[in-house]
Amino acid sequence: MVRVYYHASHEQFPPGRLLEYARLAERAGFKGVFSSDHFQPWSLKQGESGFSWSWLGAAMQATSLPFGMICAPGQRYHPAIVAQAAATLSEMFPDRFWMAIGSGQALNEAITGERWPSKEERNERLRECADILRRLWAGEIVNHRGRVMVQEARLHTLPSGPFPLVGAAVTARTARWLGSWADGLLTVSRPPEELRKVVDAFREGGGAGKPVYLKVQLSYDQGDRALEGAWEQWKPNILENSVLTELRHPEQLDDAARYVRREDLHGSVRISGEVERHLDWLRADIALGIEHLILHNVNLNQRPFIEAFGERVLPGLAGN
Length: 320
Fold this sequence. Notes:
Blueprint: E1 3-8, H1 15-28, E2 32-35, H2 52-62, E3 67-71, H3 79-92, E4 97-101, H4 106-109, H5 119-137, E5 142-145, E6 149-153, E7 165-168, H6 172-179, E8 185-188, H7 192-207, E9 212-219, H8 225-234, H9 241-246, H10 250-256, E10 270-271, H11 275-287, E11 292-297, H12 302-317
Parallel strand pairs: 1-2, 1-11, 2-3, 3-4, 4-7, 7-8, 8-9, 9-10, 9-11
Antiparallel strand pairs: 5-6
């Protein structure tokens, strides 16, 4: 069965308003919520960046939905702290928490003042962190010397049970690597032929039978507002991943996106005010074997999106 999540974008909304949207999403019929985790927004026009771990505790208490989140252990977060935070949420809300991990972006992680590693180094660090997280959740005393350092760490409050540790990837190469050790794949929407390459690479790399989570970047609104809202809020995010991971400040991303035209967004964001068009796109995702859809309406007009998709999109996917 397909599970459809509402994406809580901390870069775009203050935490109190996101809490309202999470409640509204539950009432509308969404089956989960997925939380971003940023120290800075992608753009000054987005303008927010609440602390996701604090928000998750409040949001999970305020709803009965399962929640997922993504973070980048290894620099801004020591993996032992991530393990403790996740274990606490899992203990308080059994069977309702899962997480994805990725190699991160300088925008968030370079604030520590440490050297920002190459992508290869960041992947090596991520793999070490995954092993550390799992060992700590299993109750082991962990010592580790590598790209991260852990000395005699042990969690005394353990998770209520196992939960998925999903790996995030935007390229087929990274997805193939994740297939060998991650419990699932998190990737982002793109044209079908490109998405298929990423999903197939994950499965061929050892991920066959593991779940795939797709963050669907869309803009739903009436008339021209769908395109205008996407362009105003999300144009830096369509830049190449090598740019998104290396720039350190929202101002730099705004500068880099200065010449992004409105029409340029269509390859990265699904823009339409027609519910049936969005249904067609989502059904094509499901045809690839994707059963977890995280819907991120990238414009600021969230309530009409939640209500319209609750009334017309979620029922249309219920039989899949």
